[in-house]
Amino acid sequence: MAKAMLVEKIEAGTVIDHVPATRAPMVLRLLGDPETRGYTVAVVMNAKSRRLGQKDIVKVEKLEISKAQVDRLAVIAPDATVNRIRNYRVVGKTKVEPERRLTGILRCPSPTCISSRAGEPVKSKFELYTEKPLTYACVYCSRQLSANDFLTQLIW
Amino acid sequence: MAGKLKNGWKGRDVISSLDFTRESFELLFSASKEFADGDRARSDLLRGKVVATAFFEPSTRTRLSFSSAAAKLGASVIDLSTEVSSLAKGESFSDTLAMLDSYSDIIVLRHPSEGAALYASEICRHPVVNAGDGSQHHPTQAMLDLFTVLRLKGRVDGLNYLFVGDLRYSRTVSSLLFALTRYKPGRVTLTSPPALGLKPETKSILERYGMSVREEQDIERSVGSADVIYVTRLQKERIPDQAEYQKLKGSYRLTEGLLEATKADCIVMHPLPRTDELPTSLDASPKAAYMKQAGLGVPVRMALLSLILGVA
């Protein structure tokens, strides 16, 4: 028996695959909640994945995501692939890769870091520290963040 | 001095010891030696230059040695008094820095927040010298510490270093350890109460640069093999919980008995000020190097200002 597709193919837009299981809502939030802006959105959660065991998939019709959004995506879904769809076909596939430097994306949790100082026009800056496991270090105070911290420190 | 290396200093910011190569340090120490030995009698090297000092935290030696170094070289010093300036009216750090930048040729900055000097360097067109920010960086202290070792021991490589005290909140310790990654020290041992051990971030950086350190809680097991003992006070102002401070107060001390157990040519250093971890009864010992160390702050900072302002 042919395997039924859970979600229909989209004509044009973006499919984000290999999102860690249960993080699809975060991906949507990162994309600016397109479901609240009239976009057609399909989400598959906890799908079987050979690579991840379980994964989420997010499809958004007629939406293309920006470079800045891909950079943010790298910290919550470091193994994701972003597929650009035109006429029901994949016309571009981008493997999310951790950026060497993240500016204004993660908030430093250290209260004594200059980037935490209220009233200063300073943007947080993190540099890739290790790729496996994925860690970033604050360029101002050297505080290191790992995958679990990214979710709490992400600047939405 | 080699022109190429000289250019490596000109106009640069001094944010972290990690920003410098061994060659940069050696060039600095070569110039520092000339000033320390009195070989350079000229006092007008920096005539017409304005050095701004902006200390957002208390300081005695660092502030005065920078001012003294600038004065000896003929520069004018303008000082931002954080209590009576517009900061007291709520002016932002960035606005204050932008103002200082337009009034001076170089800015010497101390601040309680980690990364303040780096942030200042992003704002300012003129070089920024970190005179201590937060609990991680105090690069010019590390430079004068290395110069002290070089002067008193003749080398930095191959010596056994023992760090004693508050290693968690002391920026002089992390800065000197960072600077030592540019050399080939012998054994590096850290002795502190468990709550005051090196921060994981600092350890991780040292590992990244290939420096192995040994942690040893019992100071008696380490003093005998040390060539350089570096003692720091408990950093009361940076310990978040003052109840914790009260518990840790007096938890370590370099005693006369411990000093007797050291090698005959061991030196004891301390960035000062001291509290009770280094009793004054040790001052008469030929091993006590901390006052000489403080004195060398001036020639090292003279060399630093000269190199950055491109006149050394």
In short:
The complex is a heterodimer of chains A (156) and B (312). Chain A has 156 residues and is of the alpha+beta class.
Low-confidence stretches of chain A: none
Shape estimate of chain B: globular
* Main beta sheet of chain A: 5 strands, antiparallel
CATH homologous superfamily title of the largest domain in chain A: Aspartate carbamoyltransferase regulatory subunit, N-terminal domain
What's the number of structural domains of chain A? 2
Biggest β-sheet: strands ordered side by side in the sheet of chain B: 7-6-5-8-9
| Percent strand of chain A | 35-45%
Helix content of chain B: 25-40%
Taking strands numbered 1, 2, ... along the chain, how are they ordered across the largest sheet of chain A? 2-3-1-4-5
Outline the structure in words.
- The complex is a heterodimer of chains A (156) and B (312).
- Chain A has 156 residues and is an alpha+beta fold.
- Chain A contains 3 helices and 9 strands; from the N terminus they run E-H-E-E-H-E-E-E-E-E-E-H.
- Chain A folds into 2 domains: 13-95, Aspartate carbamoyltransferase regulatory subunit, N-terminal domain (Alpha-Beta Plaits), CATH 3.30.70.140; 101-153, SH3 type barrels (Roll).
- In chain A, the strands form 2 sheets. Chain A has a 5-stranded antiparallel sheet, covered by helices on one side.
- The longest helix of chain A has 10 residues, at 67-76.
- The mean pLDDT of chain A is 90.
- In chain B, the strands form 2 sheets. A 5-stranded parallel sheet of chain B has the order 7-6-5-8-9. A 4-stranded parallel sheet of chain B has the order 2-1-3-4, sandwiched between helices.
- In chain B, 46% of the residues are buried.
- The longest helix of chain B is centred in the N-terminal third of the chain and has 15 residues, at 22-36.
- Classes of the chains: A alpha+beta (156), B alpha/beta (312).
- The A-B interface holds A 110, 112-117, 119-122, 129, 137-144 and B 92-94, 111-116, 118-119, 133-136, 200-202, 204-205, 238.
